């Protein structure tokens, strides 16, 4: 039986992971499940899967979690420290699916314990890619990508040499506003941005898809994960979301990964790795699909993509600043304090303001300085936001 833990179990990725586990319960022992405010779901799943431990991020919800787990053998705990503690419990396979920079510390702890970390939390790679990979290497852990594009690249690279890779193309659906005229974007509301044409995901990542901040994070994640020269990474808009990524080799061959937009593919690939296991995902009918289309990823429409290139060129803690400023800008957009188009401007200004503070080498990136940069960037973005009123 494999010992597994899921961080962010109540979210979209967490629930999809549990869906796969539920189909083969004899193969898994669930060690820890963690969640945020939805303690009803957390307690229900902890009971159903016989978890050793359930942790909510919010200490105020501990009494409720305890009450919901009464009479079961599941231990209850709460707070960010308790989440990191949960990662200290030995597990073979750990799903990192907390949203935001809060996912970094538990993921690092799981790697220190030598676990295989299935990484949905792209923010970990954006904020601290070199630290995550170094931690895995030092402690005999392993990181497997769960973001669909990165899982696709990983699969296209099996048996290949990185020195033969000419380019990596990741696709973007274009999000809710891909067909809107640019002039209309300033009026876009959070409700409109939170509807995704193809994928069913959490609210934040769905809005990040419309602004392309999600793709910007993924471009940085690609660089960090596969140690690629940024010049080799391309983004193309592919409205059907059937091809997730392509890898181009020195002989001109382009290997594409196709599949329906269902995160259980990438999650299941990481769960079954190094084997392939049967997965309950729809099989593509190419004739029915009939055509796949592509458009350029315009940096005027989506300035987040330009910012990603600047972040990769700057390196150091600029990824952490970028991510934190983006999270703050997203909060401000969701809270109707800034417009949809203001998010990129606010992030850019924050990056400029903190360029000196971000200048460290890759080897100098630590959990502490990432969290400090995250904190400073949120504060700076909040101050800069006032000018948008
Ligand atoms: P979600 O919002 O649906 O779920 C997030 C989970 O994290 C929930 O369990 C929530 O309770 C928990 N959480 C939120 N804030 C927390 C905090 N401060 N401390 C501890 N726990 C907290 O998000 P999601 O869509 O499942 O995405 C999770 C991660 O996976 C993100 O990093 C996202 O970018 C990435 N991802 C998601 C998808 C997708 O299809 N949903 C695809 C690729 C990558
Ligand atoms: Mg993705």
UniProtKB/TrEMBL annotation:
Name of the protein in question: 1-deoxy-D-xylulose 5-phosphate reductoisomerase
Record-linked InterPro entries: DXP_reductoisomerase (IPR003821), DXP_reductoisomerase_C (IPR013644), DXP_reductoisomerase_N (IPR013512), DXPR_C (IPR026877), DXPR_C_sf (IPR036169), NAD(P)-bd_dom_sf (IPR036291)
Catalyses which reaction(s): 2-C-methyl-D-erythritol 4-phosphate + NADP(+) = 1-deoxy-D-xylulose 5-phosphate + NADPH + H(+)
Top EC class of this enzyme: oxidoreductase
Domain DXP reductoisomerase C-terminal: 258-379
Pathway: Isoprenoid biosynthesis; isopentenyl diphosphate biosynthesis via DXP pathway; isopentenyl diphosphate from 1-deoxy-D-xylulose 5-phosphate: step 1/6
Protein family membership: Belongs to the DXR family.
Residue span, 1-deoxy-D-xylulose 5-phosphate reductoisomerase C-terminal domain: 143-226
Keywords assigned by UniProt, alphabetized: Isoprene biosynthesis, Magnesium, Manganese, Metal-binding, NADP, Oxidoreductase
GO molecular function, one term: 1-deoxy-D-xylulose-5-phosphate reductoisomerase activity
Protein function: Catalyzes the NADPH-dependent rearrangement and reduction of 1-deoxy-D-xylulose-5-phosphate (DXP) to 2-C-methyl-D-erythritol 4-phosphate (MEP).
Cofactor: Mg(2+); Mn(2+)
Residues holding NADPH: 10-13, 36-38, 121, 123, 202
Domain 1-deoxy-D-xylulose 5-phosphate reductoisomerase N-terminal positions: 4-129
Coiled coil: none
Binding of Mn(2+), residues: 147, 149, 218
EC number: 1.1.1.267
A Pfam family matched in the record: DXP_redisom_C
A Gene Ontology BP annotation from the UniProt entry: isopentenyl diphosphate biosynthetic process, methylerythritol 4-phosphate pathway involved in terpenoid biosynthetic process
Residues that bind 1-deoxy-D-xylulose 5-phosphate: 122, 148-149, 173, 196, 209, 214-215, 218
